[in-house]
Amino acid sequence: MTSDRTTRPTTRYRVRHRTSYTYGLAVADAYTVACLLPREREFQDVIHARVVTTPDPDEYVETRDVFGNRIVQLGVHHRHEAFEITAESIVDTAVPDVPSTGRSWEEVAEIARTLRGASAIKVGPYRAATKHSTPIHRTDLLAALAGRIFTPGRPVVDAVTDLSREIFEEYGFDSTATDWATPLDTVLENQRGVCQDFAHLATAVLRWVGLPASYVSGYIETDPPPGEVKSIGADASHAWCSVWTGPPENDGPAGSPISAWLDVDPTNHHVPPLRHVTVGWGRDYADVAPVRGVVLGPGSNQLLDVAVDVTRLDISN
What we know:
It is a single chain. By secondary structure, the chain is an alpha+beta fold. It has 2 domains: 11-94 and 289-313, Immunoglobulin-like (Sandwich); 105-287, C8orf32 fold (Roll), CATH 3.10.620.30. 20% of the residues lie in helices and 36% in strands. Helix 5 links the parallel strand 7 and strand 8 (192-193). The radius of gyration is 20 Å and the shape is globular. The protein starts with 10 loop residues before the first strand and ends with a strand. The relative contact order is 0.23. Mean pLDDT is 90; it is low at 1-6 and 251-259.
């Protein structure tokens, strides 16, 4: 990883993400896949990261997926009535640079379309439509949104920034409006949703015009209301997107990850993100779901509780 800590102010965060399952009846076996450990980026150093569970797992394997994300595979192969997964991380992160490119969005889309070899393998998967980033019926609404923003000859960074602003200003944040399975059609029609929906919407628009875009999973530092103390466990997972702005024009090959991608948080209109910790990225939510798995046992109700804390640490000394 390439870092430049001499010119970029760095912020250190401690992240604690706890996921608890309580089963109505004891289960005999459980298998879980977790994408909870932050990964290195050119502007992010992972100082410490681990996953612990209660009860202890019978099987623990850490690997990398096809996108390079850190994946933990957990197996509890004995009788248990509850399962708790806690990821603890300490990360140094800086505000990433905005790519310095004068290319229009059409130029970038054409470069992406004509990539070959290793560059195509690196960038190509993020051009394809996916279930969560494609409307089933309301492509007219998606096309209209894209047409308002991506006008002919417009510089790619300007257009992407305006897309973020449009979603931020016109789509209301409403945690009751959607869930993880809500189709993009509903988000487009009602113009309401949460960070996951807005990240999917942004990637959908970007891919519609031919720009590679990834779905990014992670965390954002939040502030309590004025005069109130921050509540423990009140934070949450966050999502945004990253758009490929073309290969570096002077210092790298096509498909180089350095300075070619621009992270965009349309939920907060941060271009680039300002107080974010990256866990991983993929084509959509399904590639980087924080926790997913199966249990074997009698049918019963299952209670899920998630608590996230993102705390800024003092590294001045």
